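Q: My labmate handed me this sequence with no annotations at all. I'd like to see what the chain might look like in three dimensions before we decide whether it's worth expressing. Could you predict it?
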Amino acid sequence: MSTLNQINETQVARPVWKRNRRPRREFSFVDFLVFLLPLLLLVILLYGMLVWTFYVSFADWSGVAPNYTFAGLKWYKMMASLDRFWVDVRNNLKWLILGVMPTVIIALFIAYLLEIGSIRGLESYVRTLILYPVAMSFLVSGTIWSWMYEPNKGVFNTILRGLGLDSLTGRFATNPSTATYWLIVIFIWQYLGFAVIILQSSFRTTELQEMVEAAIVDGASRLRILIQVIIPNIRGGILILVSLLLISSLKVFDIVYIVTFGGPGYSTDVLSLHMLIATFQQHLVALGAGLGVIIFAMAFIIVIPYTIYAFRKWFE
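A: Here is what I predict for the chain of 316 residues:
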């Protein structure tokens, strides 16, 4: 009798289970137009232009009129023979390293102080101050900082002279050996608020807050809490932040263009600025395409693998 009851229950339950299943929605033509078609066009445009740029870098296009005659590695050999190209590569690597790591470290300490050691009412003002540069374009930031760096009447040198520290005045963006580092300072200033907000959002999880409170009760110092409790538990946020900053530093152009235009000489030049000059001023379109391919290769070798790794760690 119990077996019959089980069979009957199974037969009764099966139709109910089928009724509760959601019918599978078929992909309509409207869905294709709204979702797939724009995505398809974007992919075709993106990778189509990438293939076109790669092909032009092997062409003999040196002038206003297009010339797709195959020239082999002519422009890559020319590129490798230019001292300016190797200066560009070194400067781009400086931006990748010195533009990213100090931004993350400074932002980490600021976010930690705002979360753990904040004074009532201070956090909102500090957040506004550090977020304001993010809302500014690089053109505006570069213009402001070029006035501040001006050797004769710039803000920094004027303040130093007013304090009687004439010996500390400098040329900042006009000194070939140090100009790139002063440009990187602008990048750090502009992205610092963005980095702080991302790290603060990583701090504000229930589990991490409970761990910090427990560490404070146990008498751990704030520096120890930061190193041993917070940093290991916000690893995902740090990885994502680093990947975003790497992408931004690799495609840097505006700051260099506005403040120094690659000078003095080409000491502060970067690959993107060199590509612009080669393509639109010297009309060496194939050389400009080759420089674009080098930028893509650097992104593919350095940024893209790290970004994939960061997103995997984020979703673990």
